[in-house]
Amino acid sequence: MFPISNIKVAIIAGYEATSQQICDQLTALWGAYITFIPMAAGRYEESMAQDVDLILVSSHIIFTRSSPAVINKRTEVQIIGRTLSKAGWEKIKNLPDGNYMVVNDERDSAVETISLIYELGLRNVNLLPCYPDVPELPKAAIAITPGERSYVPSHIEHVIDLGERVVDISTMVEMLTRFHLLNHETTLILNEYAKNIVSRSQGLQATMQGLIHTKNLFEETLNMVQDGVVTYDERGKITFLNKVAEEILALPFSRVANRDIRLVLREMRIDTSFLDKDLQNQLITIRSQNILVNNMKILSRGNVAEGVITFKIAKEVEELELKLRTQLRTNGHTARFHFSDIVTNSPLMKRLVSRAQRMAPNDLGVLILGENGTGKELFAHSLHNASLRANFPFVAVNCSALPESLLETELFGYEDGAFTGAKKGGKPGLFEQAHRGTIFLDEIGDISPHLQTRLLRVVQQKEIIKVGGTKVLPVDVRVIAATNRNLVTMMKEDKFREDLYYRLKVLQIEVPPLRERKEDIPYLVQHFLKKKKVLAELPEPIMAAITQYQWPGNIRELENTIEYLSIMNEGDLQIEDLPFSIGDSINQAASTSEKTAPLIETNDSSGQKLVPADYAELDVERLLLELILEAKIKGLHTGRKNLIKLARERGILLTESLIRKQVDLLREKGLVNVQIGRAGCQLTTRGYAYIKNQEQED
Ligand SMILES: Nc1ncnc2c1ncn2[C@@H]1O[C@H](COP(=O)(O)OP(=O)(O)OP(=O)(O)O)[C@@H](O)[C@H]1O
């Protein structure tokens, strides 16, 4: 354990009694911070033998009397300034003109007291020194003495006792500053003390108050910081500990103030090697707690470095990180599905689900293969939710959705200033955001060779380097990848890295297409109808058509079809209400067996006869522009499917290929804009004008 106070100060005065008296005064004020050792002038050696941090001498005279040989050159020496108490000063401050003897235990002390009284402002009196072996007693009827009544000549009847001289404020401030003890608490003590003494240096006191205020403000601010902060000076002496640092080290600042930082840490069995360099976030152990430590040197005075150490409790950082990750999960990085969401009636699929359930708690990578829309993502979500990482983020990335450079910065993040326009402070990548969770790399077969190489590093070494950075960041992420492409063929064609393939496919799941598990179709239809809550079941002919269809878009296509039928439903669903592709394929199947059958010729729900449009008679250009406008007004997507549906409502049958061709022509004429993706086509200003003109002509 540390002693109550580690700072030792020797007090040397002409007489032991005087040094004891000064010692008592100072101990009463600062005993909690400093140990004072009283010494008589004749016993310097003894005091020097003690390893003290400072020697306080009662006057210049005592200092010059001591033999230089006995003054330890390394120990600092400070002269004690003394003054009068307010009560003592009150007794003399209005004395009338005249002679007064000033009595003390020795000549030097008497002279000192005289100069003090003059300095404090009593100038109208004539003060004469008087001490035990004075050659000639001064001619005065009144004696003034600072607590040394016993030396007053016996014939003097009128004695003014000023009381013991007291240590001046400036001496206290100098001593406290030397030991970095000037803080809020010590300032309060100083202020109280100042009320009862006459200060010899009023100006200095005011300046000091200002400095103390600034310092207190600074320290209060550091006490509000949530990290532990320790500062030390160029000699390695501790100059400040904020409250958090006191808690982490379980040490009050007063016990370590001005002590060597290395010694203090070593006494606590803390590895001090971090003090030799500037470092960030090194993990050390303090009192069985994992602490992240930062050490920074500050060149504030010439070339000598002072230092600042900050401590963070690693658990708190982890908790914060966890909070951030929980937040991330609520911000979208979360797995929505569980194995129980996989609807199936196929023995093949049931076996697959049970295999996947066994893979889930294992931390190995999983490669999911299968055509588009077969449910690969559903499996990835379910694997994560059934794993030990379920409480951490699930980050899904579609590798084919972004251009290479963007995908790279999304995945790995970038450092501050990595490229023009890079966000200040850099950006964390998705791998970082998935830390302790799972990253799902969908369409992995679409990534470039360069990214394949970068990915290999993460999968192999579990570490990333940000774009434009050099720092290696460890990440703890499980990788689940999926693709509809044939990676084995791609490897043979040198389009996919073999080492990456084998790393990814430690565990493999192959989701069969819907046409290979037809028994799932009615089951899934029922499931999606229930979800839509519009229809209880589908009419038999539609159900038959759906079961017959090959479903190239698999479950996604089936789900969309059910959604489409729910919208189309007006109580009497017909086969022609099926999306064109399905109806088309059924008809194609029919036409191969019955070559004479018309493309589509039936009644729709309104009893209107639908026939393929006679395009020669139709202003297809105008029709399409109107349909696009109508879709826009109805808030529908302007894709081909909706345009076909709207045309049907007008009793006109359009084919997808006709629409595609026609839209191309309209675009060339500047009447429509075609946007890539799901945005579909939009009328241009010219397109609107065209319709308007046509209407006017009509
Ligand atoms: N067995 C199933 N039970 C219920 N819904 C399913 C099932 N399989 C797939 N789905 C649904 O079908 C849609 C497509 O599934 P998912 O996105 O998982 O397929 P995918 O194979 O990842 O597709 P892609 O390769 O195009 O990314 C989703 O809405 C999903 O919820």
Automatic annotation (TrEMBL):
Keywords: ATP-binding, Nucleotide-binding, Transcription, Transcription regulation. Pfam families: AAA_lid_14, Sigma54_activat. SMART domains: AAA (SM00382). One of its GO terms (molecular function) is ATP binding. Coiled coil: none annotated. Residues 214-268 form the PAS domain. It comes from the Bacteria. Gene3D superfamilies: 1.10.8.60, P-loop containing nucleotide triphosphate hydrolases, PAS domain, Winged helix-like DNA-binding domain superfamily/Winged helix DNA-binding domain. Transmembrane segments: none annotated. Residues 342-567 form the Sigma-54 factor interaction domain. One of its GO terms (biological process) is regulation of DNA-templated transcription. PROSITE patterns: PAS, SIGMA54_INTERACT_3, SIGMA54_INTERACT_4. PANTHER family: C4-DICARBOXYLATE TRANSPORT TRANSCRIPTIONAL REGULATORY PROTEIN DCTD (PTHR32071:SF57), TRANSCRIPTIONAL REGULATORY PROTEIN (PTHR32071). This is ATPase AAA.
